[in-house]
Amino acid sequence: MTECIIQGPCGAVSIQATPTGICAVRLLQSDTALKAPTTALLNAAAKQLEGYFSGTLQAFTLPLVPTGTAFQQQVWQALQQIPFGETRSYQQIANAIGNPKAVRAVGMANSRNPVAIMIPCHRVIGANGQLTGYAGGLDKKAWLLQHEQQPGQTRC
């Protein structure tokens, strides 16, 4: 596995890849030394994330290879169907995967998404429209959602 660390508008972003695809994107909680991409795939991922952050990219076109259970994979596939700038509730995702009683399980799968932003778990909100947990922090989730409504914002 290879890794690079780029500067995002909300702090450092770690990107990890296997030879076959991107396996992790994490918003880091503290400032971390940047690390240049060392492979073509990491370079492409860094460029696409920079495009997303600048407001010029709305859809990622990289191979993603997150590790998870079959259920988690199903949820993550559903998350990738949420259009840029839109949100869905946990209930809507549970319905989309044909398991309307799995709302809590959807929440758990969402929280274990290893490929933040590219698999847009930040687009999932509570049924009442409120922001709920986000591994990168609710401030970053709020920024990502606002950024998708008004692309090209500056920093968090």
Structure report:
The protein is of the alpha+beta class. Helices cover 34% and strands 17% of the residues. The protein contains 5 helices and 5 strands, in the order E-E-E-H-H-E-H-H-E-H. It has helices at 40-54, 70-79, 90-96, 103-111, 138-149; strands at residues 2-8, 11-18, 21-27, 88-89, 124-125. The strands form 2 sheets. A 3-stranded antiparallel sheet has the order 1-2-3, covered by helices on one side. The protein has a two-stranded parallel sheet with strand order 4-5. A hairpin with a 2-residue loop joins strand 1 and strand 2. Helix 3 packs across helix 4. The longest helix has 15 residues, at 40-54. The chain is globular. The two termini are 30 Å apart.
What is the arithmetic mean of pLDDT? 93
Q: Using only CA atoms, what is the Rg?
A: 15 Å
Annotation field: number of helices: 5
- Say how many strands there are: 5
How far is it from the N-terminal to the C-terminal residue, by CA?
30 Å
Spatial order of the strands in the main sheet? 1-2-3
Q: How would a crystallographer describe the biggest sheet?
A: 3 strands, antiparallel
Kindly estimate the percentage of residues that lie in beta strands according to DSSP. 15-25%
Q: What would the principal axes of the Cα set say about the shape? A: globular
Structural class given helices, strands, pairing?
alpha+beta
As residue ranges, the low-confidence spans are: none
Oligomer: single chain
Helix content percent band:
25-40%
Order of helices and strands: EEEHHEHHEH
